[in-house]
Amino acid sequence: MGDLRQEVEPGSAGLDPEALDRLDRYFAALVTDGRLPGFLVAVSRHGRVAHLTTYGRRDLAAGLPVRSDTLWRIYSMTKPVTSVAALMLMEEGRLGLDDRLADFLPAFARPRVYVDGSGPGTRTRPAERPILIRHLLTHTAGLTFGFYRTHPVDGLYRDAGVESSVAPGADLAETCEVYARLPLQFEPGTQWNYSVATNVLGRVVEVVSGEDLDEHLHRRVLGPLGMTDAGFQVSGEQAGRLAELYGQDTEGRLTPVAGLPLHGRPRFLSGSGGMVATAHDYHRFMEMLRRRGELDGTRLLRPATVDLMAANQLPGGADRLSFGSPVHREPGNAGLGFGLGVSVVVDASATRAPSSEGAFGWSGVATTTFWVDPRRDLTVQFLSQLRPKGSHSVFPELKRLVHEAVRP
């Protein structure tokens, strides 16, 4: 079991203690006001934890506090982990960015693209280009999520039983077969649309490696990095440290909601959002990325591969606002590109919150987020366990407060 601890004083790491105190007070007020159950925030500089705060409850009814060893459902923060596994296979020559998806998953051999209509009246045409592995890593494959409710193809996902990304009772291979039968929203490589693509990538990892996704990630990524609690299920020993998952009722009050099926090995191993981890676990993962592929003498990726992962891959240096599908053409995507499994700041002046160009990371639906800032040699993670009704409005404030704490 790993337990994250503060290693140095903020001032010695070039951080302003008073600004960090403002950060803590801001989020503590959200807990006091009943807008968050509890949280953990960790800020590291030059590879050492310089600020670590836990506050509130991991289980409101039981009165159990958030601790540094609390286990969190990290949901979409799983995606960078799956992406690293795929990039490791690429370094070994077993997978390539421009390989056709159909070479590994034949069900995607003849994709069709949406033309018009909806439901049974949907018209499609054959895709002009194949789906490539790079399209999965960059969310430009034309796949989508059924819960968006902004495009007729989203409705087809719901009709096919994958509104929540998984077909009821299906495993990863079976669910990907369902995706393959559905039309693409657009021609591969022509728009950015956050989607089920990393589930498909997880299935590719299974096919290439010959191992189930959980086994492969444990053997190649989690184990070597010392991510001792991270995985797709919790043991009896871990169960007491798992934070309760909350939603909001009609009046905005916190109420427990069903989360991932973690007690026992899940049938559906979601490379997109199926993992749990502690702050210690994800700190180890972030540190490997900050150090460009290596940690404590263990190298997962070459520096050039991490640099490629953290570089904007959208055509012409576009951001997600200009290159995004209609659902993503919102101000929050301005100045943000997308690399190979992570968001990347391409224009700090255009972003919604203070940022450094080249900073990269991603978030999870249960109010978890992380980023690595190479220019400031900074890593940050924030962990809570709330699936809010709307967008994660706390993240811009988190970035503002952290950046106020970084001394020039």
User: Sheet with the most strands?
Assistant: 8 strands, antiparallel
* Strand-residue proportion: 15-25%
Provide the succession of SSEs.
Answer: HEEEEHEEHHHHHHEEEHEEHHEEEEEH
How are strands sequenced across the largest beta sheet?
A: 3-2-1-16-15-14-13-12
Given the structure, what is the number of helices? 12
Q: How much helix is in the residues?
A: 25-40%
Q: What are the segments in which pLDDT stays under 50 over at least 5 consecutive residues?
A: none
What is Rg? 20 Å
**Topology, number of strands:** 16
Rough shape?
globular
On the 0-100 scale, what is the average pLDDT? Answer: 96
Distance between the termini: 36 Å
> Structural class given helices, strands, pairing?
alpha+beta
Walkthrough of the structure:
The protein has 408 residues and is an alpha+beta fold. It is globular. It is built from 12 helices and 16 strands. An 8-stranded antiparallel sheet has the order 3-2-1-16-15-14-13-12, sandwiched between helices. Strands 4-9 form a two-stranded antiparallel ribbon. A hairpin with a 2-residue loop joins β10 and β11 (298-299). α1 packs antiparallel against α12 and α2 (78-91) packs across α6. The protein is 29% helix and 17% strand.
